[in-house]
Amino acid sequence: MNLPQASSASPAAPATVPTPLVRPRLTFIGTGYLGATYAICFAELGYEVLGVDVDAQKIASLASGRVPIHEPGLDEILRRNVAAGRLRFTTDYAEAAEFGDVHFICVGTPQRADGLGADLTYVEAAVTSLVPHLSRKALIVGKSTVPVGTAAWVEQLVGKHVPTGVEVEVAWSPEFLQEGFAVEDVLRPNRLVFGVRSAWAHQMLLAAHKGVFDLATTEDREVPVVISDFATAELVKHAANAFLATKISFINAMAEICEASGADVSQLARAIGYDDRIGKKFLRAGVGFGGACLPKDIRAFQARAQEIGAGEALRFLHEVDLINQRRRTRVVQLAADLLDRPYGPAGPDLTGFRIAVLGATFKPATDDVRDSPALAITRKLARHGAQVALYDPKGMANAQREQPDLEYADSMVDAVTDADLVCVLTAWEEFRYADPKALAGVARGLRVIDGLNCLDQPLWTAAGWEYRGMGRPNPA
Ligand code: UDX
Q1: Ligand 1 site: residues with CB under 6 angstroms?
Q2: Cα angle at 371 between 367 and 372, to 5 degrees?
Protein backbone atom coordinates (compact mmCIF):
# COMPACT_ATOMS: atom_id res chain seq x y z
CA MET A 1 0.00 0.00 0.00
CA ASN A 2 1.51 3.27 -1.09
CA LEU A 3 0.35 5.45 1.74
CA PRO A 4 0.77 9.18 1.41
CA GLN A 5 2.95 11.26 3.65
CA ALA A 6 1.08 13.19 6.28
CA SER A 7 1.92 16.85 5.91
CA SER A 8 1.73 17.42 9.62
CA ALA A 9 2.65 14.66 11.97
CA SER A 10 0.73 15.46 15.05
CA PRO A 11 -0.78 12.96 17.37
CA ALA A 12 0.58 9.58 16.37
CA ALA A 13 3.50 7.69 14.95
CA PRO A 14 1.45 5.74 12.44
CA ALA A 15 4.21 3.76 10.77
CA THR A 16 4.88 1.81 13.96
CA VAL A 17 1.27 0.94 14.69
CA PRO A 18 -0.08 -2.14 12.93
CA THR A 19 -3.13 -1.60 10.75
CA PRO A 20 -6.01 -3.00 12.76
CA LEU A 21 -8.10 -4.02 9.76
CA VAL A 22 -7.12 -4.04 6.11
CA ARG A 23 -10.62 -3.31 4.85
CA PRO A 24 -12.90 -2.17 7.65
CA ARG A 25 -16.63 -2.34 7.05
CA LEU A 26 -18.10 1.12 6.69
CA THR A 27 -21.42 2.70 7.54
CA PHE A 28 -22.51 6.13 6.35
CA ILE A 29 -25.14 7.57 8.64
CA GLY A 30 -27.40 10.05 6.88
CA THR A 31 -27.98 9.25 3.20
CA GLY A 32 -28.64 12.76 1.96
CA TYR A 33 -26.51 14.30 -0.70
CA LEU A 34 -23.28 13.76 1.25
CA GLY A 35 -23.82 10.34 2.82
CA ALA A 36 -25.41 8.73 -0.24
CA THR A 37 -22.57 9.87 -2.47
CA TYR A 38 -19.94 8.61 -0.02
CA ALA A 39 -21.68 5.28 0.61
CA ILE A 40 -22.05 4.60 -3.11
CA CYS A 41 -18.51 5.66 -4.03
CA PHE A 42 -16.84 3.76 -1.19
CA ALA A 43 -18.66 0.60 -2.29
CA GLU A 44 -17.27 1.30 -5.75
CA LEU A 45 -13.81 1.44 -4.16
CA GLY A 46 -14.36 -2.12 -2.97
CA TYR A 47 -15.58 -1.64 0.63
CA GLU A 48 -18.53 -3.39 2.17
CA VAL A 49 -20.86 -0.52 2.93
CA LEU A 50 -24.12 0.05 4.77
CA GLY A 51 -26.04 3.30 4.27
CA VAL A 52 -28.19 4.30 7.24
CA ASP A 53 -31.04 6.78 7.45
CA VAL A 54 -34.18 7.36 9.50
CA ASP A 55 -36.06 8.20 6.29
CA ALA A 56 -37.52 4.85 5.17
CA GLN A 57 -38.54 6.26 1.79
CA LYS A 58 -35.00 7.38 1.00
CA ILE A 59 -33.61 4.03 2.07
CA ALA A 60 -36.15 2.14 -0.05
CA SER A 61 -35.30 4.28 -3.06
CA LEU A 62 -31.54 3.73 -2.67
CA ALA A 63 -31.97 0.01 -2.04
CA SER A 64 -33.93 -0.27 -5.27
CA GLY A 65 -31.15 1.46 -7.20
CA ARG A 66 -32.59 4.97 -7.42
CA VAL A 67 -30.59 7.96 -6.13
CA PRO A 68 -33.04 10.52 -4.70
CA ILE A 69 -30.83 13.43 -5.85
CA HIS A 70 -29.47 14.38 -9.26
CA GLU A 71 -25.74 13.81 -9.29
CA PRO A 72 -24.07 12.88 -12.58
CA GLY A 73 -22.88 9.25 -12.70
CA LEU A 74 -24.16 8.27 -9.27
CA ASP A 75 -27.18 6.20 -10.34
CA GLU A 76 -25.14 3.79 -12.39
CA ILE A 77 -22.52 3.26 -9.65
CA LEU A 78 -25.31 2.68 -7.12
CA ARG A 79 -26.95 -0.02 -9.23
CA ARG A 80 -23.64 -1.73 -9.96
CA ASN A 81 -22.68 -1.95 -6.29
CA VAL A 82 -26.10 -2.95 -4.98
CA ALA A 83 -26.09 -5.74 -7.56
CA ALA A 84 -22.57 -6.78 -6.51
CA GLY A 85 -23.80 -7.11 -2.92
CA ARG A 86 -21.24 -4.65 -1.51
CA LEU A 87 -23.78 -1.94 -0.79
CA ARG A 88 -26.88 -2.19 1.37
CA PHE A 89 -29.17 0.28 3.10
CA THR A 90 -31.05 0.19 6.38
CA THR A 91 -33.04 2.25 8.85
CA ASP A 92 -31.93 0.01 11.70
CA TYR A 93 -29.19 1.38 13.98
CA ALA A 94 -28.70 -1.99 15.67
CA GLU A 95 -27.86 -3.48 12.28
CA ALA A 96 -25.47 -0.61 11.56
CA ALA A 97 -23.69 -1.10 14.89
CA GLU A 98 -23.37 -4.82 14.29
CA PHE A 99 -22.08 -4.32 10.74
CA GLY A 100 -19.64 -1.45 10.89
CA ASP A 101 -16.07 -0.92 12.08
CA VAL A 102 -15.98 2.71 10.99
CA HIS A 103 -19.14 4.82 11.16
CA PHE A 104 -19.18 8.06 9.18
CA ILE A 105 -21.63 10.70 10.41
CA CYS A 106 -22.99 12.44 7.31
CA VAL A 107 -26.19 14.06 8.59
CA GLY A 108 -27.20 17.65 7.84
CA THR A 109 -26.23 20.61 10.01
CA PRO A 110 -28.66 23.27 8.78
CA GLN A 111 -28.82 26.86 9.98
CA ARG A 112 -30.66 27.07 13.31
CA ALA A 113 -34.14 28.49 13.13
CA ASP A 114 -33.35 30.91 15.97
CA GLY A 115 -30.05 32.31 14.73
CA LEU A 116 -26.99 32.06 12.53
CA GLY A 117 -25.45 29.01 14.20
CA ALA A 118 -25.55 25.40 13.05
CA ASP A 119 -28.27 23.06 14.28
CA LEU A 120 -26.55 19.95 15.67
CA THR A 121 -29.75 18.04 16.47
CA TYR A 122 -29.16 15.48 13.71
CA VAL A 123 -25.54 14.87 14.73
CA GLU A 124 -26.68 14.26 18.30
CA ALA A 125 -29.49 11.95 17.17
CA ALA A 126 -27.15 9.92 14.94
CA VAL A 127 -24.57 9.44 17.71
CA THR A 128 -27.01 8.66 20.49
CA SER A 129 -28.97 6.26 18.27
CA LEU A 130 -25.88 4.32 17.18
CA VAL A 131 -23.62 4.19 20.21
CA PRO A 132 -25.84 2.20 22.66
CA HIS A 133 -25.92 -0.65 20.10
CA LEU A 134 -22.14 -0.93 19.69
CA SER A 135 -20.68 -4.13 21.04
CA ARG A 136 -17.07 -4.02 19.79
CA LYS A 137 -14.40 -1.42 19.27
CA ALA A 138 -15.43 1.09 16.61
CA LEU A 139 -14.48 4.47 15.21
CA ILE A 140 -17.03 7.23 14.72
CA VAL A 141 -15.91 9.74 12.10
CA GLY A 142 -17.65 13.09 11.70
CA LYS A 143 -17.98 14.25 8.09
CA SER A 144 -20.75 16.79 8.52
CA THR A 145 -19.73 20.44 8.55
CA VAL A 146 -19.80 21.55 12.17
CA PRO A 147 -18.72 24.38 14.44
CA VAL A 148 -15.32 24.00 16.06
CA GLY A 149 -15.64 22.08 19.32
CA THR A 150 -18.23 19.61 18.03
CA ALA A 151 -15.90 16.59 17.87
CA ALA A 152 -14.98 16.98 21.53
CA TRP A 153 -18.70 17.25 22.37
CA VAL A 154 -19.40 14.11 20.33
CA GLU A 155 -16.71 12.33 22.34
CA GLN A 156 -18.55 13.26 25.53
CA LEU A 157 -21.86 12.07 24.04
CA VAL A 158 -20.23 8.77 23.13
CA GLY A 159 -18.89 8.46 26.68
CA LYS A 160 -22.39 8.94 28.09
CA HIS A 161 -24.10 6.41 25.81
CA VAL A 162 -21.54 3.69 25.15
CA PRO A 163 -22.20 0.28 26.78
CA THR A 164 -19.80 -0.59 29.60
CA GLY A 165 -16.67 -2.32 28.42
CA VAL A 166 -16.95 -1.21 24.78
CA GLU A 167 -14.30 1.14 23.48
CA VAL A 168 -15.38 3.71 20.90
CA GLU A 169 -13.17 6.46 19.49
CA VAL A 170 -14.03 9.61 17.60
CA ALA A 171 -12.30 11.30 14.65
CA TRP A 172 -13.19 14.15 12.30
CA SER A 173 -12.66 14.15 8.55
CA PRO A 174 -14.41 16.97 6.70
CA GLU A 175 -15.67 16.57 3.14
CA PHE A 176 -15.17 18.99 0.28
CA LEU A 177 -17.74 17.78 -2.26
CA GLN A 178 -18.94 20.07 -4.98
CA GLU A 179 -22.38 19.20 -6.25
CA GLY A 180 -22.17 18.12 -9.87
CA PHE A 181 -18.63 16.77 -9.33
CA ALA A 182 -19.29 14.79 -6.18
CA VAL A 183 -18.38 11.34 -7.52
CA GLU A 184 -15.03 12.61 -8.72
CA ASP A 185 -14.45 14.49 -5.46
CA VAL A 186 -14.97 11.30 -3.40
CA LEU A 187 -13.00 8.94 -5.64
CA ARG A 188 -10.21 11.41 -6.37
CA PRO A 189 -10.10 13.92 -3.53
CA ASN A 190 -7.57 16.75 -3.80
CA ARG A 191 -6.78 16.24 -0.12
CA LEU A 192 -7.90 14.35 2.97
CA VAL A 193 -7.99 15.81 6.45
CA PHE A 194 -7.95 13.49 9.46
CA GLY A 195 -8.55 15.01 12.88
CA VAL A 196 -7.51 12.25 15.29
CA ARG A 197 -6.51 11.75 18.90
CA SER A 198 -4.89 8.31 18.69
CA ALA A 199 -2.66 6.19 16.51
CA TRP A 200 -5.44 3.61 16.28
CA ALA A 201 -7.92 6.16 14.91
CA HIS A 202 -5.30 7.33 12.44
CA GLN A 203 -4.68 3.78 11.24
CA MET A 204 -8.39 3.03 10.97
CA LEU A 205 -8.88 6.13 8.82
CA LEU A 206 -5.99 5.14 6.57
CA ALA A 207 -7.51 1.65 6.21
CA ALA A 208 -10.93 3.17 5.54
CA HIS A 209 -9.39 5.19 2.70
CA LYS A 210 -7.08 2.48 1.32
CA GLY A 211 -9.29 2.27 -1.77
CA VAL A 212 -8.78 5.99 -2.41
CA PHE A 213 -4.99 5.65 -2.08
CA ASP A 214 -4.88 2.49 -4.23
CA LEU A 215 -6.82 4.21 -7.01
CA ALA A 216 -4.45 7.18 -6.82
CA THR A 217 -1.45 4.86 -7.08
CA THR A 218 -2.79 3.15 -10.18
CA GLU A 219 -3.28 6.59 -11.73
CA ASP A 220 0.12 7.82 -10.64
CA ARG A 221 -1.35 10.49 -8.40
CA GLU A 222 -0.85 11.38 -4.77
CA VAL A 223 -3.53 12.23 -2.27
CA PRO A 224 -2.13 14.59 0.33
CA VAL A 225 -3.29 13.86 3.88
CA VAL A 226 -3.27 16.46 6.62
CA ILE A 227 -3.30 14.93 10.08
CA SER A 228 -4.46 17.33 12.76
CA ASP A 229 -6.21 17.77 16.06
CA PHE A 230 -10.00 17.89 16.19
CA ALA A 231 -10.33 21.68 16.20
CA THR A 232 -8.16 22.17 13.12
CA ALA A 233 -9.98 19.46 11.17
CA GLU A 234 -13.32 21.08 11.98
CA LEU A 235 -12.08 24.55 11.10
CA VAL A 236 -10.59 23.50 7.75
CA LYS A 237 -14.05 23.14 6.26
CA HIS A 238 -15.41 26.44 7.51
CA ALA A 239 -12.19 28.21 6.53
CA ALA A 240 -12.24 26.74 3.00
CA ASN A 241 -15.86 27.70 2.42
CA ALA A 242 -15.33 31.16 3.94
CA PHE A 243 -12.44 31.70 1.54
CA LEU A 244 -14.47 30.58 -1.50
CA ALA A 245 -17.43 32.75 -0.49
CA THR A 246 -15.11 35.71 0.03
CA LYS A 247 -13.58 35.25 -3.39
CA ILE A 248 -17.00 35.26 -5.04
CA SER A 249 -18.17 38.27 -3.06
CA PHE A 250 -14.92 40.05 -3.87
CA ILE A 251 -15.57 39.78 -7.59
CA ASN A 252 -19.22 40.71 -7.06
CA ALA A 253 -18.09 43.80 -5.15
CA MET A 254 -15.90 44.59 -8.16
CA ALA A 255 -19.02 44.12 -10.30
CA GLU A 256 -20.69 46.87 -8.27
CA ILE A 257 -17.70 49.13 -8.86
CA CYS A 258 -17.76 48.27 -12.56
CA GLU A 259 -21.48 49.11 -12.72
CA ALA A 260 -20.77 52.50 -11.13
CA SER A 261 -17.83 53.24 -13.40
CA GLY A 262 -18.73 51.71 -16.74
CA ALA A 263 -16.06 49.00 -16.59
CA ASP A 264 -16.50 45.31 -17.41
CA VAL A 265 -16.08 42.82 -14.55
CA SER A 266 -15.61 39.83 -16.90
CA GLN A 267 -12.53 41.40 -18.42
CA LEU A 268 -11.35 42.54 -15.01
CA ALA A 269 -11.69 39.00 -13.59
CA ARG A 270 -9.78 37.57 -16.53
CA ALA A 271 -7.03 40.09 -16.16
CA ILE A 272 -6.50 39.59 -12.42
CA GLY A 273 -6.98 35.81 -12.71
CA TYR A 274 -3.86 35.44 -14.84
CA ASP A 275 -1.89 36.15 -11.68
CA ASP A 276 -1.34 32.68 -10.19
CA ARG A 277 -1.51 34.11 -6.71
CA ILE A 278 -5.09 35.14 -7.40
CA GLY A 279 -6.14 32.38 -9.81
CA LYS A 280 -9.02 32.26 -12.29
CA LYS A 281 -11.36 29.99 -10.36
CA PHE A 282 -14.29 31.31 -8.32
CA LEU A 283 -13.99 34.74 -9.90
CA ARG A 284 -17.23 34.59 -11.87
CA ALA A 285 -19.43 37.57 -11.04
CA GLY A 286 -23.16 37.03 -11.22
CA VAL A 287 -26.15 36.46 -8.99
CA GLY A 288 -23.90 35.33 -6.13
CA PHE A 289 -23.39 32.09 -4.28
CA GLY A 290 -26.10 29.79 -2.99
CA GLY A 291 -26.51 26.12 -2.18
CA ALA A 292 -26.57 24.10 0.98
CA CYS A 293 -23.06 25.00 2.10
CA LEU A 294 -21.52 28.39 1.43
CA PRO A 295 -24.32 30.66 2.75
CA LYS A 296 -25.02 28.66 5.91
CA ASP A 297 -21.37 27.90 6.60
CA ILE A 298 -20.23 31.52 6.62
CA ARG A 299 -23.05 32.30 9.05
CA ALA A 300 -22.35 29.34 11.32
CA PHE A 301 -18.66 30.24 11.27
CA GLN A 302 -19.41 33.79 12.42
CA ALA A 303 -21.78 32.58 15.12
CA ARG A 304 -19.21 30.15 16.48
CA ALA A 305 -16.41 32.73 16.35
CA GLN A 306 -18.62 35.04 18.43
CA GLU A 307 -19.24 32.28 20.97
CA ILE A 308 -15.53 31.60 21.41
CA GLY A 309 -14.65 35.29 21.75
CA ALA A 310 -13.17 35.78 18.27
CA GLY A 311 -16.16 37.40 16.57
CA GLU A 312 -14.15 40.36 15.29
CA ALA A 313 -11.90 38.09 13.25
CA LEU A 314 -14.81 37.15 11.02
CA ARG A 315 -16.72 40.41 10.87
CA PHE A 316 -15.80 40.65 7.19
CA LEU A 317 -17.94 37.59 6.50
CA HIS A 318 -21.00 39.66 7.36
CA GLU A 319 -19.99 41.97 4.51
CA VAL A 320 -19.42 38.95 2.24
CA ASP A 321 -23.01 37.90 2.97
CA LEU A 322 -24.39 41.40 2.33
CA ILE A 323 -22.57 41.73 -1.01
CA ASN A 324 -24.00 38.35 -1.95
CA GLN A 325 -27.57 39.37 -1.06
CA ARG A 326 -27.24 42.66 -2.96
CA ARG A 327 -26.63 40.76 -6.20
CA ARG A 328 -30.10 39.32 -5.95
CA THR A 329 -31.60 42.78 -5.61
CA ARG A 330 -29.48 43.96 -8.54
CA VAL A 331 -31.42 41.65 -10.88
CA VAL A 332 -34.68 43.25 -9.77
CA GLN A 333 -33.14 46.70 -10.42
CA LEU A 334 -32.09 45.62 -13.91
CA ALA A 335 -35.58 44.25 -14.57
CA ALA A 336 -37.15 47.54 -13.51
CA ASP A 337 -34.67 49.41 -15.69
CA LEU A 338 -35.32 47.27 -18.77
CA LEU A 339 -39.09 47.37 -18.30
CA ASP A 340 -38.94 51.11 -17.69
CA ARG A 341 -40.51 50.97 -14.24
CA PRO A 342 -39.42 53.37 -11.47
CA TYR A 343 -37.61 51.79 -8.53
CA GLY A 344 -39.30 53.28 -5.46
CA PRO A 345 -38.60 52.64 -1.76
CA ALA A 346 -40.61 49.42 -1.93
CA GLY A 347 -38.99 48.37 -5.20
CA PRO A 348 -40.59 48.47 -8.64
CA ASP A 349 -44.15 47.66 -9.57
CA LEU A 350 -43.84 44.98 -12.24
CA THR A 351 -47.56 44.29 -12.55
CA GLY A 352 -48.64 43.46 -16.08
CA PHE A 353 -45.30 42.07 -17.21
CA ARG A 354 -44.57 38.45 -17.95
CA ILE A 355 -41.04 37.41 -17.03
CA ALA A 356 -39.41 34.14 -18.12
CA VAL A 357 -36.96 32.88 -15.52
CA LEU A 358 -34.53 30.30 -16.86
CA GLY A 359 -32.97 28.39 -13.97
CA ALA A 360 -34.07 27.43 -10.46
CA THR A 361 -31.10 25.45 -9.13
CA PHE A 362 -28.22 27.18 -7.35
CA LYS A 363 -25.85 26.08 -10.11
CA PRO A 364 -25.95 23.76 -13.12
CA ALA A 365 -25.58 19.95 -12.99
CA THR A 366 -27.66 19.61 -9.83
CA ASP A 367 -31.33 19.54 -8.91
CA ASP A 368 -30.61 21.34 -5.65
CA VAL A 369 -32.55 24.56 -5.06
CA ARG A 370 -31.47 25.14 -1.47
CA ASP A 371 -30.71 28.84 -0.94
CA SER A 372 -30.70 29.23 -4.70
CA PRO A 373 -30.18 32.81 -5.91
CA ALA A 374 -32.33 31.98 -8.96
CA LEU A 375 -35.29 30.94 -6.84
CA ALA A 376 -34.89 33.86 -4.43
CA ILE A 377 -34.85 36.32 -7.36
CA THR A 378 -37.90 34.64 -8.91
CA ARG A 379 -39.75 35.11 -5.63
CA LYS A 380 -38.76 38.78 -5.54
CA LEU A 381 -39.94 39.36 -9.12
CA ALA A 382 -43.27 37.69 -8.33
CA ARG A 383 -43.60 39.71 -5.12
CA HIS A 384 -43.18 42.88 -7.18
CA GLY A 385 -46.19 41.89 -9.24
CA ALA A 386 -44.63 40.22 -12.29
CA GLN A 387 -46.23 37.13 -13.78
CA VAL A 388 -43.26 34.77 -13.68
CA ALA A 389 -42.83 31.60 -15.76
CA LEU A 390 -40.02 29.46 -14.37
CA TYR A 391 -38.20 26.65 -16.15
CA ASP A 392 -35.24 24.52 -15.09
CA PRO A 393 -33.91 21.35 -16.76
CA LYS A 394 -33.46 19.37 -13.51
CA GLY A 395 -34.73 21.45 -10.60
CA MET A 396 -38.46 21.68 -11.33
CA ALA A 397 -39.66 19.12 -8.78
CA ASN A 398 -37.61 20.61 -5.95
CA ALA A 399 -38.53 24.17 -6.93
CA GLN A 400 -42.22 23.27 -7.04
CA ARG A 401 -41.97 21.69 -3.61
CA GLU A 402 -40.30 24.79 -2.16
CA GLN A 403 -42.30 27.40 -4.10
CA PRO A 404 -45.65 25.86 -5.05
CA ASP A 405 -47.22 29.24 -5.82
CA LEU A 406 -44.98 30.13 -8.75
CA GLU A 407 -45.93 29.42 -12.36
CA TYR A 408 -43.86 26.67 -13.98
CA ALA A 409 -43.27 26.18 -17.70
CA ASP A 410 -42.68 22.81 -19.37
CA SER A 411 -39.75 23.95 -21.47
CA MET A 412 -37.46 26.90 -22.14
CA VAL A 413 -39.53 27.88 -25.17
CA ASP A 414 -42.78 27.68 -23.18
CA ALA A 415 -41.31 29.95 -20.52
CA VAL A 416 -40.08 32.51 -23.06
CA THR A 417 -43.29 32.50 -25.12
CA ASP A 418 -44.98 35.91 -24.73
CA ALA A 419 -42.44 37.03 -22.14
CA ASP A 420 -41.59 40.74 -21.85
CA LEU A 421 -38.26 39.89 -20.25
CA VAL A 422 -36.06 36.80 -20.01
CA CYS A 423 -33.79 36.29 -16.96
CA VAL A 424 -31.09 33.62 -17.20
CA LEU A 425 -30.31 32.81 -13.57
CA THR A 426 -28.60 29.39 -13.72
CA ALA A 427 -25.84 28.73 -16.24
CA TRP A 428 -27.27 25.49 -17.69
CA GLU A 429 -25.84 24.62 -21.12
CA GLU A 430 -29.37 24.52 -22.50
CA PHE A 431 -29.63 28.27 -21.83
CA ARG A 432 -26.05 29.21 -22.65
CA TYR A 433 -26.30 27.68 -26.10
CA ALA A 434 -29.93 28.59 -26.77
CA ASP A 435 -30.60 30.20 -30.14
CA PRO A 436 -31.46 33.85 -29.44
CA LYS A 437 -33.02 34.21 -32.92
CA ALA A 438 -35.43 31.34 -32.30
CA LEU A 439 -36.35 32.69 -28.86
CA ALA A 440 -36.86 36.16 -30.37
CA GLY A 441 -39.57 34.59 -32.52
CA VAL A 442 -41.70 33.63 -29.49
CA ALA A 443 -41.00 36.38 -26.92
CA ARG A 444 -43.17 39.50 -26.67
CA GLY A 445 -40.36 41.87 -25.66
CA LEU A 446 -36.73 41.25 -26.58
CA ARG A 447 -35.08 41.99 -23.24
CA VAL A 448 -32.66 39.67 -21.50
CA ILE A 449 -30.82 39.71 -18.17
CA ASP A 450 -27.75 37.49 -18.13
CA GLY A 451 -27.42 36.80 -14.39
CA LEU A 452 -24.23 34.76 -14.82
CA ASN A 453 -22.60 36.60 -17.74
CA CYS A 454 -22.81 33.26 -19.49
CA LEU A 455 -24.52 34.20 -22.76
CA ASP A 456 -22.84 35.17 -26.00
CA GLN A 457 -23.75 38.86 -25.73
CA PRO A 458 -22.94 39.91 -29.34
CA LEU A 459 -25.07 37.03 -30.62
CA TRP A 460 -28.05 38.03 -28.50
CA THR A 461 -27.65 41.71 -29.37
CA ALA A 462 -27.42 40.83 -33.08
CA ALA A 463 -30.69 38.88 -32.74
CA GLY A 464 -32.37 42.06 -31.51
CA TRP A 465 -32.27 41.51 -27.74
CA GLU A 466 -31.67 44.37 -25.32
CA TYR A 467 -29.01 42.79 -23.09
CA ARG A 468 -27.99 43.43 -19.48
CA GLY A 469 -25.17 41.55 -17.79
CA MET A 470 -23.88 41.70 -14.22
CA GLY A 471 -21.09 44.23 -13.69
CA ARG A 472 -20.86 44.93 -17.40
CA PRO A 473 -21.61 48.05 -19.40
CA ASN A 474 -24.74 48.04 -21.55
CA PRO A 475 -23.89 47.10 -25.15
CA ALA A 476 -23.97 50.11 -27.50
C1 UDX B 1 -19.21 24.17 -2.04
C2 UDX B 1 -17.70 23.96 -1.99
O3 UDX B 1 -17.14 24.24 -3.28
C4 UDX B 1 -17.37 22.54 -1.57
O5 UDX B 1 -15.97 22.37 -1.47
C6 UDX B 1 -18.02 22.28 -0.23
O7 UDX B 1 -17.79 20.96 0.19
C8 UDX B 1 -19.52 22.55 -0.30
O9 UDX B 1 -19.76 23.87 -0.78
P10 UDX B 1 -21.16 23.54 -3.76
O11 UDX B 1 -22.13 24.07 -2.77
O12 UDX B 1 -21.46 22.27 -4.47
O13 UDX B 1 -19.73 23.31 -3.06
O14 UDX B 1 -20.99 24.66 -4.84
P15 UDX B 1 -19.82 25.48 -5.55
O16 UDX B 1 -19.49 24.89 -6.84
O17 UDX B 1 -18.71 25.76 -4.62
O18 UDX B 1 -20.61 26.83 -5.84
C19 UDX B 1 -21.19 27.57 -4.76
C20 UDX B 1 -21.94 28.75 -5.28
O21 UDX B 1 -21.03 29.74 -5.73
C22 UDX B 1 -22.87 28.47 -6.45
O23 UDX B 1 -24.06 29.19 -6.24
C24 UDX B 1 -22.12 29.01 -7.65
O25 UDX B 1 -22.94 29.39 -8.72
C26 UDX B 1 -21.41 30.19 -7.02
N27 UDX B 1 -20.21 30.63 -7.74
C28 UDX B 1 -19.17 29.78 -7.88
C29 UDX B 1 -20.14 31.92 -8.25
O30 UDX B 1 -21.09 32.72 -8.10
N31 UDX B 1 -19.01 32.33 -8.87
C32 UDX B 1 -17.95 31.51 -9.05
O33 UDX B 1 -16.97 31.95 -9.64
C34 UDX B 1 -18.02 30.19 -8.54
Answers
A1: 175-179, 241, 244, 248, 282-284, 286, 288-291, 293-294, 362-363
A2: 55
